UniProtKB/TrEMBL annotation:
<keyword id="KW-0732">Signal</keyword>
<feature type="region of interest" description="Disordered">
    <location>
        <begin position="125"/>
        <end position="149"/>
    </location>
</feature>
<dbReference type="GO" id="GO:0016020">
    <property type="term" value="C:membrane"/>
</dbReference>
<feature type="compositionally biased region" description="Basic and acidic residues">
    <location>
        <begin position="128"/>
        <end position="138"/>
    </location>
</feature>
<dbReference type="GO" id="GO:0015562">
    <property type="term" value="F:efflux transmembrane transporter activity"/>
</dbReference>
<protein>
    <submittedName>
        <fullName>Outer membrane efflux protein</fullName>
    </submittedName>
</protein>
<feature type="signal peptide">
    <location>
        <begin position="1"/>
        <end position="22"/>
    </location>
</feature>
Amino acid sequence: MIVLRFVPVVITLGLVSAQAQADATQPAAPQVTSASAYSVDLMGLYREARLEDPRVLSAYLRAQSAVDSQRDALGGLLPQVTANGSYNRILRKDETEREIYNNSSYSLNLTQYLYNKQAWEAYQKAKSTTEQKSHQAEDAQAEATVDLA
């Protein structure tokens, strides 16, 4: 019975190899490349280089991090708002009397510095860093495009 199981496999392999030999003897059709197919492939390679190149990705992520840092530094220049609230209940018992006092207090505090040198310098530094990282990301994209060519 073992022989019967291998026989169909051997026959099938023989038919497949005979078909492959028949295909190999036929002349191959000439390949025609059109300009539009070439440009689509080139655009696909360009997108792939932009989306998958680790140098480009890391440069763009560093640029995005710099943008986030700039927004944080801008927060130091904006008004600061603080809100507080409290509620107290006091129970006072004597032998003859029982008194309950309720107390609630709320506060809202808005602070805006007219000139905060430290915050302004931090914002200016973050702004220049953002511009620098943006240029580095563009340079990394250009390098990846040149490496692609």
